[in-house]
User: Fold this.
Amino acid sequence: MASPSPSPASPRNVSSEGNGPSSCLRLRRLLFMCATDDRADHPSPTTSTSLDSPRAFVSSRWANKEAKLLNHASFERHPYRRNADRKGVAPSLLMTREQEESRFILIRFDCLTSTGPAFSQEPPTMLHYQQQLGFERRSPSGEFDAPSPSPTRTTIRQAMSPGLSQRGTFARFSSSTPPAETHSSTTQNEHFTYSPSPMNKSAPEEIPPHTPTCDYTQPEEEWYHEGLLDPIWEQQQKKTFTAWCNSHLRKVETSIDVIEEDFRDGLKLMLLLEVISGEPLEAPERGRMIIHKVANINKALSFIESKGVKLVCIGAKEIADGNVKITLGLIWMVILRFAIQEISVGELSAKDGLLLWCQRKTASYHNVSIQDFHNSWRDGLAFCALIHRHRPDLLNYNALSRDDPLHNLNLAFDIAEKYLDIPRMLDPELMVHSPDERATMTYVSSYYHYFLGMHKAETAANRICRVLNVNRENEQFMEDYDTMASELVAWIRRWQPWLENRPENDTLAIVKSKLNQFRHYRREEKPPRIAEKGQLETLFNTLQTKLRLSNRPAFLPKEGHLIKDINYAWEDLEHAETGFEEWVLAEIKRLETLEHLAEKFRRKCATHEEWARGKVEMLQSEDWRTARVDGIKALKKRHEAFESDLGSHQDRVEQIAAIAKELTNLRYPEIGPIQATCNSICQQWDQIGMEAEERHHRLDEMERVAERLDGLHLDFAKQAAPFSNWLDGAREDLADIVLVHKMSEVEELLKAHEQFKATIAGAGHQYQALQALENELAHLVEKHHLNAELKSNPYTDISMADVARKWTDVKALTPKRDHKLQEEYNRQRNNERLTKLFAEKANVVAPWLEQHLDRVVAIGLSPAGSLESAVRDLRQIQTDAHNFKSSLDEIERINQEMQENYVYEHKGTRFSMETLRVGYETLLTSINKTISEIENQILMRDSKGIKEEQINEYRSSFNHFDKDRVGLDEEQLKSCLISVGYNIRNGPDGDEDMHRILNLLDPNRFGRVPFDAFLDFMTRETADMDTVEQMIDSFRILAGGKDHITVEELRNELPPEQAEYCIRKMDQFHLADGFDYVAFAKTLYN
Assistant:
């Protein structure tokens, strides 16, 4: 019963008995063969016209007629043409295009055999040929009958039920498996046999004229119709192809035993194609009938054709029938397409490429000359050379001999099977005597793919190691940066509070101790930290450059450890340092002034206490009760002298109070005792005043009894009291501490002292006058034999002895005062010398620093020569700067000596010591920073392959727009990019471009883009860099295509250090026992 016509979407639907479009082509080839073999007048010497010979001839008249009709039918291109009368073609010969192409195979037409009848009477009709080729009669609609496939679909693995395949593991096949010789389709009175020719013999046999053989791997015009497959070569191919198929099928836990039998249902064939292509095929048919098998095989053949393979003479029916030759031909086409065609060496590919690869790999090995894929491999040395070329540890090639081919072949095959996971596809005995080219190519292609995969694994491992090394180095840089930044910030935080702590109640000793600590900080603590700060900036710039070069995100330190944060903290520290230095020097000056005032207060208090001692008791005395009138008068006169003395002491008391008030206002640390003493003196002074006033009233009352008055004593008292007061003041002035800070102050003191010495002569006359009064009084007492007690002056307590002692003190203190003032004068002259020396050296050092700083800046902006020469120039400047440090130390010593002498002004120069320090530190910092920038440019040039001319061009454009030399802002960066040819779109798109670029060049939002970041961006636009996708692909190669990688795979493929690093850093995969290398690769780049 006829089945429905085949659907256009199913070009390979055929009936179980071979009906289908390809039968037309079979018929077409049959007639072509008959037509070309019809040489009745000129028979071939190698053929026979006998009807029972292997080759039968059909009359050329019949063949031409039938071929003519067939050509009309076969070139009708419309698949549904039903016009039976068009071009005179019979309806029985019309067929669809699908039927025409589905069974395009080579036919060996044995018209007459010993078992079949001969065409002895009438030539066969076209219908007869159709029936012999598997066509059925047309249905009433005019189409050939063909059964439709089952609509039920399933997967290939589900279709391969245990009943269909009981072999789930890789099987070893013996070369003794008897190959099927032919496959025949026999009808009642004809016998058709089709078979491929012997495959690639080393020397093809001589083909008789007009009897072409068929090779289904060759184009249509090169087919030959002669020759069965040689049994030995067939045996080799079956063994090799079976092993090759099993090497792929074992990946899905299945295998084949007999290649022509196990592919008959099409399921394992489809599974094999899925494995080797990595692409899913259509769902297979579920049934086990021949129609389902043919449908599955057709799907496999359609897939092969979709990959650009032209399947000539290979049909699904022959595969389903177990035709060994057609099956081997199909597998060979698969091997060619999926194992050999993709091989590319130089400009050659496929077979020639594989041959060239073998020649290159074995070119240096003696006794190996590979010219083909059969004879060149007989002695086994070529196989051993390939193994030794890639794995020299597996065999000793020099110990092999070409005289022992079996040993060489067995050795190569055993090593490949044991160590390279390449199954034994060839028999050494057959290889020695009759090697098959296709089997050899198949086996050698396994070597090629294994060693190529090994090279890919090494490349992937090297890439991973390189990226991991870069990542670990960057992590170490980050740890070093955090450590250095933490230590520097901690040091700043430790010293800044100390510098900012400026109490107001410290003593002079404590403040001087702080000055010594500050000098220790300046000499010992700060210089190493300055170097650390420069190293930290260099480390940060180097790290950022390395991160950009390795396509990593910019390093963002933790809060407070950014370079700008450290710079701000450093600026705060230097501000606190400057303020502390100004404060401590001013505080020392203030406290020394206060100490001078306190000492002056104590001397005046001592003088006052000496004067006031006994005054209250004297004023409270009641001696007037027992005194005579002359005594009272004497007491009154004495009291008048006391009141005169009291008035002269009023200034001293006021000075004591004023000094105490000034000390209080100036926050003298030990003001308590001062105020207590001042209060005591004031209270005492008030009491003396009241007591004196009271005594004066009492003496007035007793004035009538006090008439005796010794004018001499009175004159002495009146003259001695102011003179004695003057002597006290002179002693105080002469004993005063000399504390000056300028030469003019010393000169003023010298002038005042000279003026004082000019008054000494007048004081001497006054002293002589007092001495004359004392001498006259003594003379009168002695002359008139008066009581010696009368020598005492009743009007004053000042004796001539007191005046003489004070006068002696003044004369002794005067030269001492001269000496002190002269010493101070000499000290001020030395200070002026130091000031002048400092100015001379500062005026030399400062221009040197400015000149070299300008030179460093000029080199950084535009190096005159190569980048390496610029680094050498900077290194030389750095060496000169270190050698010049001695000059700066000399100025530092002079400045310290000036400070010890309390000289704080720098006359004759505009450069202070702080300015010179900052200039020298700025020079060192600029040198280190410029060296770091240029070395980063060298690193980018070498790693990116950029030329120095391009770097200079970028620098020239950058400097043109960087007017203020602090980096480019957004507008300047946009103009600079446009100037070097970078495409910035207009409008909002251009704003997005600039936003993306700024995120790359200024990730920390400083608002300025430095030159090294700009250079790195321009080089990255044209350089190929490692990406996260490359890392993932590299790990996938090591993992054998899995989405996770195991510990064993990491340790087998990577060096121990790198493997342990990955194991420590990777996360566990959630679906299997392994690690998630995809997430790990992404963390390396994010």
Notes: Confidence is low (pLDDT under 50) at residues 1-155, 161-228, 705-709.
